[in-house]
Amino acid sequence: MKASPIALLPLLLFLAMFIGSGIYYQNQAVEFAFYQISAPVAILPAILLAMLLAKGPLNERIETFIKGIGDNTIITMVVIYLLAGGFASVAKAIGGVDATVNLGLSLIPDPLVLPGLFVISAFIATAMGTSMGTIAAMAPIAVGVADATGIEMALAAGTVIGGAMFGDNLSIISDTTIAATRTQGCEMRDKLRLNAKVAIPAAALTSVLLFTMGGSGEVSTTDDTNILLVLPYIAVLIMALSGLNVMLVLFSGILFAGVVGMVQLPDYSVAQFSKDIYAGYTSMQEILILSMLIGGLGAMMKSQGGVEYIAGVIDRLTRRKHNHEPSPRSGEVSIGAAVALTNMATANNTVAIVLSGALAKDIASRYGVDPKRSASLMDIFSCVVQGFLPYGAQVLLAASIAKLSPLELVGSIYYCALLGIAAVISILLGRPNR
Description:
Structural class: mainly alpha
Distance between the termini: 34 Å
Order of helices and strands: HHHHHHHHHHHHHHHHHHHHHH
Helix content: over 70%
């Protein structure tokens, strides 16, 4: 296959459409400007361009596109997205989110307000699998804590974002984790183990830093915590860490959450259980459709030599100076840079992983990077970048709740900075690899 930079034009068109619309609406002072034109719609002109650039009969071009959509990795990812959405929706509907938040806040000692906010946000995000849901639940609490204790508002909100990104990076049901493991072809348990070896030290340092910066004050909850409503989250975490298949884990989690809801809530029926599962499916619609369309677009660009061209460029830039042999360290740098740059362009860490997944897998193969390490680096660097984007959804949501400028807020998200530093150190030291 002949490498061709022309094959990359559809991807550049997609990014131009997505970023261009975001800049336009931002200039119009529209909230969540980069999310006014959804990515699954912005990618349509790129697909048309890829069709026009491809050679051969039209039916063959369409067949290549359809094969990309139906790729085993893409379809598996779609099923996992649906199950993850169903579990998150049911668990939230039965009151699991509120119960988890109250449980966490009730455990915070008064002198550890900021570290406590960080740890509880991290736990909730790990359990829920969504940084946005965690921020939506915890940011109002952080605002109240800041008002009551005199802690700087940006620091309190930034602490919640940091905790949310920690959990998003290490959750069994996070779409970033799902995308990273499926695109790289590794086991989720192995990827999470490597992630933890980088993320936990960064989280520990963050907690120490927050302790030295924060004040103290009383944090109280308004409702008694029903521990039974927290059990579905705990069960999913335990099953995931035990090494069970992720689909079985999520399916079991859905059933467990439904049973708990029917036992604890008098009005929670089988019909409502069904509606909540379907609502979870619907919540995954955008990333599900985009993953499929990107799979098709990626297959077309690959068939035209686009991936070969990028791999060749990276190969020339990162090859060792002396013996000209591939270096795993150079491969890891390339993987991190690829997903980071894509994330800056798309303002969505999951989209960035899906977009750069095929390239990262190719780089990992060329440079001898283990798939689980590749998946770990992709998830880490995408979370680092996403946590600092003033036009990213997480920062915009927290800023709107705290009534702060997004630019003012990004300077207080210490966990993402420390996670990035830890990731770079791990590459330089060549650890962890297992």
